[in-house]
Amino acid sequence: MKKIVLITLILFNAHLSFSQVNNESSFPTAIKKAKSSKKVVCVYLGIPEKPNFKYKSAFYNKDVAKYYNKNFVNYSYSAGDTSSLSFILKYKVTNMPTCIFIDHTGALIFKGSVGNNTSEHYLDMGKQALSRKAGGLILANYETKFKNEKHSEKLLKEYINLRIESGQFNNADLIDEYIDYKTIGELKDPEEALFILKAGPYAFGKAYNLVYTYGTKVDSMFLQLPLPERITINNSIINNTLNEAIRTKNPDMAQQVMSYTRNTWGKNYEEGAKQSQLKILTYYKAIKDTANFYNQAPYLFDSYMKVSADSIKVPENIERSRIEKMLKDQATEQIKEKRTTQKTSGTTTMIVSSIVTIGPSQYSSIPSLLNNAAWDYFTLGTRNKNHLSKAILWVKRAIDLKPMPQYYDTLAQIFYRMEFYDEALINQKKAIEMAIQHNITDNELKSLKLTEQKIKDRTL
Questions:
Q1: What are the residues whose beta carbons fall under 8 Å from the beta carbon of 309, sequence distance 6 or more?
Q2: What digits encode the pLDDT tens for the residues 387-401?
Q3: What is the CATH number assigned to the segment(s) 367-457?
Q4: Could you give the strand order of the β-sheet that contains 108-113, starting from the edge strand earlier in sequence?
Q5: 372 and 253 in contact (C-beta within 8 Å)?
Q6: Domain ranges within the chain, ordered by starting residue
Q7: Considering the entire predicted model, what is its pTM?
């Protein structure tokens, strides 16, 4: 018995010497302690540190731990911890490991991405967080300033930067206001032009056009950015413009979204056309323009019906490598073209480079795309048998490519609307059987069973 206790103590002490950061027992405890101590909370999200892990986070180094224990109230979420999901969503965490610095009210002070796994980097993040708190450079403070104080170039720039850092990229109106403070000469500063693009201006709107009219080296600077940054900028511009087009029901602005989206795909004209068509369909759906939606949707979604089942099984890492190589080649070619154009005509061409989205294989998302298209037909309320028959073809193809319980649920509900009640019930039962095999949540399963009962009772 003594030997067992001794071994336990040795292992426990070994763990303490390995991981020196003093984490609170729970997030609410950390918040409570921060309030009483008036310290900043540091929430670390990453892989738990263990001796047999190949990845060794510098966050657990002795000098870092000493600094953080002295200056912060610490709490850590491990990768895969489901309790972290609400925190990740609230603070728009996109990368791990990362450190989120907040005050006791939950207000964001600083979000530091750990791209450089060194003690110096972690110490620098901590110092930035403390410096921001001391100087009041906190988003919550600037939201109050923006509402109550007279606007200025400095206030707008700091406010926009804090919003971008926090993961809020809907800054198109703010950047249009900001650019009114700038002179033409100032727009020639590439860093200034890049800041304007990062704010997500409306595509071909005031701020965007001024940057590309008077800015210099904008394209080459943009192409040198890391791929994730280029994607973020392009998606911000697209999403902000599309949302504004929907809000104002502006068809011209929706067309600008299409044009910009198409350009982001460079010489991949086929995919550019498809992605731009998806944007205009999103617009039609949002403003309830069902006539245009039902008229144009088949041209896009029918084009995905020919994709083979083998195509969607391309491993993600292979597809990612292929797309990244394509982007690199495209960027190199565009820079060469730009230089040639400048030499021959003395003018600057506009390059909107970088694919809009990257992640899983573009083919692997096709089943979901087809199912969603069918579901859109259903939710927009059509009872046109031709439209519903088209939707059935799409969702059946989605099932052929990648059977999912949600797809069978879509199929069942469309069959029900067409008054094919037996087929509806058969497919809803398949949805439930598959859902149980996939171990989906109790709420999702309950929803599927409720739909099944409504089909039986003819009350769907």
A1: 400, 401
A2: 999 999 999 999 999
A3: 1.25.40.10
A4: 72-78, 40-46, 98-102, 108-113
A5: no
A6: 15-135, 367-457
A7: 0.77
